[in-house]
Amino acid sequence: MRIVSIITALVVAGVLFALVLERDRLMEFAGVTPQPAEAAPAPDAPIEIAEAPTDEAAGTGVVRVMAQRSTARVIDSAVILRGETQAIRQIEVKAETSGKIVSPPLRAGALVDEGQTLCQIDSGTRAVNLAEARASLARARAGVPEASARLAEAKAQLPAVEAAILEARAAIPASEAQLAEARAALPAAQSRLVEARARVPEVEARLDEARSRVPEAEARLEEARAAIPAAQARLREAEANIPAAQARVEEAEAAVPAADARLREAEARVREAEINLKASQELARDGFAAQTRLAGAEAAFESAKAAVETALSGQKSASTAIETAKSQLEGAKAALETARSQVSSAQAGLRSAESGVINARAGVNAAETQIANARAGVQSAESAIEGARAAIESAQSGIEGAKARLSSAEAQRESAQAAIQSAATGEENASAGVQSALAAVAAAEKDIENLTITAPFAGLLETDTAELGALMQPGAACATVIQLDPIKLVAYAPESEIARVETGAQAGARMVDGRELLGKVTFVSRSADPVTRTFRVEITLPNPDMAIRDGQTVEIGIEAEGAPAHLIAQSTLTLNDEGALGVRTIDENTQAQFMPVTFLRDTRNGVWVTGLPDTVDLITVGQEYVTDGVPVAPSFEEVIQ
User: End of a domain among 513, 536, 558?
Assistant: First the structure.
């Protein structure tokens, strides 16, 4: 049934193709002459797409079109935005101190002047606190001169004490220098003596050590000579082990193919046993085979699986044998390298032992020379020690007297410095008291000043001021003041228009109730809103009667530089192959030409566009039937009209 449906569908599709697309050829094949193009179409004939009008009589292929001559005019290109009105200034006046309101409230809508009292707070005991702070300031200022006098007196006593200390200190260095010089000479002499005495046993020990190293170096030389044959023997043994290890690797690799063949044979038996098992199970289920046959098939299947496991084990054993043989081969190669390095080490040890023997004999000669020099140095150091001890005793007696005079002068200076510190502390305390009293007076005066809350600028009360008797706290609102003269119009310009908006440009606005406003652009934002990607624009205009309220919607037009443009019908616009918007024009050779345009504004009479010459012939009808370079026969609308 499906084949019949497919054949029927193919036959119907072929008939439709012949009737619709190959109609002319089918009629010619049937011997029927087609109707001429001028004849009226039959009622059942398909509707054909209209073709572009051409000059068929002339036979030149020129396309007839309707055209219009357009001349550019200079129009303003104002930036149109929507926005709202905003007060030029708005602030919520708040209290800076606490207290009860004692002034009657001003109602919302009242006009206030700059500095006018909005809220008056009860002063309470603030006047008493101010008087007390001023009295404390007077007492603090009175104590400053006395403290300064005590400090000056203490400082006057210090120069005499400092002079005595300098004199005492000047006497000490000379005595100490003499003692230091004498003491410095003694350790040096003693050190030279000790060093000279210590050098003798050391040099003797070096001589004995040098003599003892000679037999040891000779023994190492003999040992190094004896080690060379053993190292060479190990090298020959390691070289002999290499062929055996390589043979074991080849033997293990030769066993792998046999293990693989046994594995493939075992897997084939498993598949055969599995097929027999499934067949026996099916026959046993239908009653065509005995249970013994099924049991035999199951046993054969298990036996085949066991053979696979055995073959896998053999394959793994062959792989393990290969790895073991390769490891033994690598070990033999490593042993060979070790034997070679041992031979090189033995030869290097022989050369080192020979040089050690030569060095040991040279050390013996050098040690004998050093012993003679050390004994001569001991005698010279003993004579220098006696002279240094006599100079130390003379310098110590001069230092004791100079230190006694210095201790007395330093005690007098400490007493004078303590008096100065005490006087300076008293002066600082007096100055700190004055500063504390000044701060208390300023705080009391500022607190009294904050009792009167005034308007920061002239404007209009947006809310009532605080009620009489209300308790104010710091930060509590007294009233909200707004300034509506002048007033701002705030709008947000898109990225495509912001470059045409300049500060100082004239701007007009129309409110919802029809009122028209005039002002100037006073602010253009340099940063875009991160969400809307638009730029804030502010226009300031006078509002003396305050008829414009805060937050009203307005439509704004901002003056921008004018540009020559053409007013054309929207139906004249078309797109080229690249999708660019433009119009079809007629050039000096009466040929169609595409020109791109830039859309400026839409009006009831058409659209304003730029990008065209001052005077241009536009194709208004038929532009979709021509391309660039096609000859046209224009009929201008002005002539027809």
Answer: 558
